[in-house]
Amino acid sequence: MISVQIAEQILPLVPDKEVTAFLEQAARQVLLQTHADPEAEITILITGDEKLHELNQQYLGINAPTDVLSFPAGDPDPETGSIYLGDVVLSYPRALAQASAGGHSLEAELQLLVVHGVLHLLGYDHAEPEQKAAMWAVQSQALAELGCAITGPSE
């Protein structure tokens, strides 16, 4: 099960209350494409810069907000046996600003962030050039399958 939660303070800012459906679809596409367990559980939280700043400082020692953070778990649920892959936390204000700067829709930016975050839950990384190339290829393919207007970060 993929659960999308929108922080209470962000909810009034989200123009399309159906945002959960296309974010669930983005996460499912990554699971399908990587041949991960389709029954894996993921929580996606859409929140503000303040929360991402706090989490970035607490867990990565970076004193700044960011657009997406992933918190892998990989633990089986004792009741269902499903794997809980972890949490993906998105900054709505950062996604909005990046969509505007990139000249694409907020929906496309949010899809990119979810795909990127779920790939991190699955163990993908971009710290080394080889890892980055592999991650970007899977990310681009997932976004293309979703019909997303963007297929990866601009570098």
Going by CATH, the architecture would be 3-Layer(aba) Sandwich
Mind describing the biggest β-sheet?
4 strands, mixed
**CATH-defined fold name:** Collagenase (Catalytic Domain)
The secondary-structure element order is EHEHEEHHH
Low-confidence spans: none
Q: What's the end-to-end separation, in Å?
A: 33 Å
How many strand units? 4
CATH superfamily: Metalloproteases ("zincins"), catalytic domain
Q: What is the tally of helical segments?
A: 5
Kindly report the spatial arrangement of strands forming the biggest sheet: 1-2-4-3
Q: What fraction strand?
A: 15-25%
User: Class in CATH?
Assistant: Alpha Beta
Mean pLDDT: 89
Radius of gyration: 15 Å
Helix content: 40-55%
Question: Which structural class best describes the helix and strand composition?
Answer: alpha/beta
The geometry reads as globular
Number of domains: 1
Q: Can you describe this structure in just a few lines?
A:
Helices cover 46% and strands 19% of the residues.
List the helices and strands and how they pair.
Layout: E1 2-6, H1 19-33, E2 41-47, H2 49-60, E3 68-76, E4 83-91, H3 92-102, H4 106-121, H5 129-145
Parallel strand pairs: 1-2, 2-4
Antiparallel strand pairs: 3-4
Helix pairs in contact: 1-4, 1-5, 3-4, 4-5
Explain how this protein is built:
The structure is a single chain. This protein starts with a strand and ends in a 10-residue tail after the last helix. The protein has 155 residues and is an alpha/beta fold. α1 links the parallel β1 and β2. The longest helix is centred in the last third of the chain and has 17 residues. It has one domain: Metalloproteases ("zincins"), catalytic domain (Collagenase (Catalytic Domain)), CATH 3.40.390.30. Strands 1-2-4-3 form a 4-stranded mixed beta sheet, with helices on both faces. It contains 5 helices and 4 strands.
